[in-house]
């Protein structure tokens, strides 16, 4: 018995020197819901209208931004940038499209369409289990000067895995990296989220820094209205896209 006690003591001492186990990916996603307002607060949200500014510092241009979102997965983002013109990107949950002054109208299909609809999921933080087949904590890293847990999430639509970084101290989601599908190409992209504030019913980042293809775009929200009335026509495909849909049919 004495030898057993000694063995147990040695084992406990050895374990005390080991690094603490990492929290599960699921617990980090769920903690994010809690620290940003809680599941009940998210469930009360049915729509949202956001306005703000967009800035491309390297190019020295800026513009305005409007985003309309509604449950379950309708979204319309409209940007008007000097020197580039207007850009619209939307989905009604069935179709997905993009219209720009430079590239013209485009009807998304295949994986690009699936990705657009998945990313438009309203109240995504409480529905992440519907979007990912697996979320796994891979380690601890310092991102943007902040110590974070790194979580790899596997989408259920066949897209490449995405990486989330959650702040250890606050539980906020600081950064996301994913592969963006555009013009038949796979482009690495990341978004850094800062300045969390209570907007409507939940905490949201008011500043988002998007880095895609070597370009950095800064989005700053100035006003967010939860449960704003949005007509269904706002998410209807514009005329140019309807023409492409007829041709595709």
Structural notes for this entry:
The protein has 249 residues and is of the alpha+beta class. It has one domain (22-248): Lipoprotein localisation LolA/LolB/LppX (outer membrane lipoprotein receptor (LolB), chain A), CATH 2.50.20.10. The protein is built from 6 helices and 13 strands. It has helices at 2-16, 25-35, 39-43, 110-119, 128-131, 239-248; strands at 47-56, 61-70, 74-81, 85-91, 96-100, 104-107, 132-143, 146-155, 162-167, 173-182, 185-199, 202-212, 215-226. Strands 6-5-4-3-2-1-13-12-11-10-9-8-7 form a 13-stranded antiparallel beta sheet, sandwiched between helices. It is globular.
SSE map:
Elements: H1 2-16, H2 25-35, H3 39-43, E1 47-56, E2 61-70, E3 74-81, E4 85-91, E5 96-100, E6 104-107, H4 110-119, H5 128-131, E7 132-143, E8 146-155, E9 162-167, E10 173-182, E11 185-199, E12 202-212, E13 215-226, H6 239-248
Antiparallel strand pairs: 1-2, 1-13, 2-3, 3-4, 4-5, 5-6, 7-8, 8-9, 9-10, 10-11, 11-12, 12-13
């Amino acid at each position: 018995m004495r030898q057993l006690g000694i063995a147990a003591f040695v084992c406990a001492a050895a374990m005390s020197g080991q690094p603490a186990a990492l929290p599960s990916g699921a617990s980090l996603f769920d903690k994010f819901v809690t620290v940003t307002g809680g599941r009940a607060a998210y469930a009360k949200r049915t729509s949202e209208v956001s306005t703000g500014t967009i800035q491309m510092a390297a190019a020295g241009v800026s513009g305005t931004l409007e985003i309309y979102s509604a449950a379950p997965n309708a979204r319309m983002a409209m940007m008007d940038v000097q020197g580039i013109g207007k850009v619209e990107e939307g989905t009604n949950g069935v179709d997905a499209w993009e219209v720009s002054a430079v590239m013209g109208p485009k009807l998304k299909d295949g994986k690009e369409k699936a990705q657009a609809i998945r990313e438009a999921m309203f109240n995504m933080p409480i529905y992440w289990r519907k979007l990912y087949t697996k979320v796994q904590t891979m380690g601890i890293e310092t991102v943007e000067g902040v110590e974070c847990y790194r979580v790899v999430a596997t989408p259920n639509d066949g897209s490449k895995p995405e990486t989330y970084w959650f702040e250890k101290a606050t539980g906020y989601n600081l950064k996301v990296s994913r592969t963006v599908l555009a013009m038949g190409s796979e482009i690495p992209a990341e978004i850094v989220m800062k300045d969390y504030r209570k907007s409507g019913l939940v905490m949201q980042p008011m500043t988002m820094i998007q880095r895609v293809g070597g370009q950095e775009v800064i989005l700053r929200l100035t006003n967010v209205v939860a449960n704003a009335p949005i007509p269904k026509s706002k998410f209807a495909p514009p005329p140019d896209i309807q023409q492409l849909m007829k041709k595709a049919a």
